[in-house]
Amino acid sequence: MFAATSNIELPRLERGGCLYQKLDLPEALSRDEQLKARSPSLLNVLTEIPRTLLDMGALCLSSPLLASMPRGDGHPVMVLPGFMAGDQSTALLRGYLKQLGYAPMGWELGRNSGRFEIIHHILIERFLEAVDSCDDKITLIGQSLGGVYARELARFFPDKVRQVITLGSPFGVLNGTAANPLVRRLFEIQSGLSIEKMREAIYEMDPHKTPPVPLTAIYSKGDGVVNWRVCKEAFEDFETDNIEVYGAHCGMGFNAAIYYIIADRLAQPRNDWKKFERCKLGKSGSALLNGVEPGHESATVR
Fold first, then answer.
1. Is residue 255 domain-resident?
2. Number of domains in the chain
């Protein structure tokens, strides 16, 4: 549908007025890297599907609260699906965003096979086409592998992206062991690449190099597909926020807490992005969101 764009020159990345260089990590992080290399817990893996169904049920019950969220300003939002999924998997979320008054769109590239040319050529072409048609900055929301792509697009074209929201996206993966073995094998078959090679192939990918745009990384310690630790930004600053929720990996496209957070993030005024205020949910939303403050652990499965 879209021609290859190997002649597109990707811009140099800057943040805060200077070239955003790779960070030298302290040796103290070696223990953290070992934890990131673990596969999801067996309990999370075995309960992934039942918990996804519970997420769907909770979304229906939460409709009145979600319908009360602030109306949107009409800006465009592109939603990128996860591995082996297509636009059908994000239809419900896009329908909700349209109801709020935004202009959501799918990626229109069929099933996400994880192949190398998606992020290097095809998706870039699709994204630039969308920017030209909208004549406005686009918010990117990506589920799982789609969030990895969204994050990379924001690093390539920060002047065309309003903000990025990732849902259980393993952009911090250090090696293939951080994923469910079955998913890892399926990825290798479909993409033709190992997870390690995929990570190396993406242009200058570095989990410690965040895009120079506002970014919200949503993750769950109950993730049964990827290690939740690789779904967080390694370092937070004034434009970066890690938010933990309860739920399954496959259920993140139907998670009421995530819908609430997305609606809140999108409603912020242009050029006035602030971190999510967990206390704003109050009693009415206490059942939706795990209100863990940054730097604190929860009792969820690790």
1. yes
2. 1
pTM score: 0.79
The per-residue b/e assignment along 200-220, b for 16 or more CB within 10 angstroms, e otherwise, is: eebeebbbebbbbbbbbbbbb
Q: How far is CA 143 from CA 151, 210, 286, 290, in A?
A: 11, 17, 24, 19
Task: Determine the structural domain holding residue 269 and report its residue range.
Answer: 39-285
Place of tokens 């998997």: 89
CA distance 219 to 146: 14
170 or 209: which carries more pLDDT confidence? Answer: 170
Quick one: DSSP state of residue 54?
H
pLDDT of amino acid 123: 92
**Nearest alpha-carbon partner for 263 in 152, 105, 151, 104:** 104
Residue count (the chain): 302
Mean pLDDT of all residues in 132-152: 93
